Amino acid sequence: MAQPRPFLTLYGQKLSWYSTKVRAYLLYKGIDFFEQSPTLIDYYWTIRRRCGDPAIPVVVTAQGEWLQDSSIIIERLEELHPQPAVLPASPLQRFVAQLIELWADEFWHVAAVHTRWSYPEQNYPLWEAEMGRGFAPGWPGFVQCGLSAIPKKMMLDYLPLMGIVKEQLPLIDRWLELQLDALDAHFATLPYLFGSRPSIADFALFGPLDGHIYRDVSSRGPLIDRRPNLHAWIQRLSVRKPQPWPGEFLADDRLPQTLGPLLRSIFDEMTPYLEGVLREVRVLLPTLKPGQRLPRTTKEIHFPYAGGSQFRMGLPYTLWMTQRTLDDLRRMPAADADRVGAAVTAMGGERLLALDIPRLRRVGLHAAPDTN
Hints:
By secondary structure, the chain is α+β, with helices and mostly antiparallel strands. The chain has helices at residues 17-29, 40-51, 70-80, 91-106, 109-117, 120-135, 141-158, 169-187, 200-214, 217-225, 228-237, 260-284, 316-330, 334-346, 350-353; strands at 8-11, 33-36, 58-60, 66-68, 300-305, 308-313, 360-363, 366-369. The chain has 3 domains: 8-80, Glutaredoxin, CATH 3.40.30; 91-113 and 167-369, no CATH class; 119-158, no CATH class. The strands form 3 sheets. A 4-stranded mixed sheet has the order 2-1-3-4, with helices on both faces. Strands 5-6 form a two-stranded antiparallel sheet. The protein has a two-stranded antiparallel ribbon with strand order 7-8.
């Protein structure tokens, strides 16, 4: 049996989107942790062997439990450290918080990858330094630079697959402006998304907004610094909170009206994308051998985006995340589920609720058919 540790270990990096999400959660909850940038051996031997895929963030709990995927990490740590809860207890807020987490984790890829990798001449030096030191600590600089160049090429090759091509950049920039304006307007009225306490949705959005957009040289000034309320929200989530923790979610299961633009993106843009991924996955499932995982990506998906049409490769893992969110609604008492379903339908979410996703399970950072 593993011996308990005096603290939690976070394998992460400052410029990693999902590490940023988990780090902010740990700071808010006051959980003692040590952060370690993974070496190449950590990635391709230790983390792959323990978790299935060479990716961060990974958390090793004080009890020696290894966790991968930011949502799974936070879900497990909430069981170990339940107060103050970051998931609202009231049913509508709870469901919408999980929807926004899904949207932030799975639909912001295009925007956040664009702000970093469409401008590598400005953003790469900081990223190169962090990756190189992490991959090969203590090695000569030329070795660290050479190792960093490998994932850089992978990311640049990734851009066309994400629809980050020259003719689409104005559309992506417009989408970002719309979302950031909406968030700045919301944070002019409330300190967090659902009141005076941060929720899982806040931590999820903090990932791309702080881990990429705020930290990248090309985007911080034009996108964050000129939006003072959004900037202040980033600062609030960046520091360890004093205890006892102040703040509450809004009373009476109310949703702020200022969340309307975010929800419209979820229902009008992300839902058609999910429908496209679902079509591709239904084609792939009969081709899988017993026990085989779905591929990490699918063919190109087209979907509405900022008043235009965007495309990107599909991620079947997003369907597992969506299924997980819809399952939480289905587990609610019937009266609560009916009320949430009616409210979401009234907001335009009927197609999201109607998604008929084949049962999937999580295998590392892949989705796979659930044959149980």
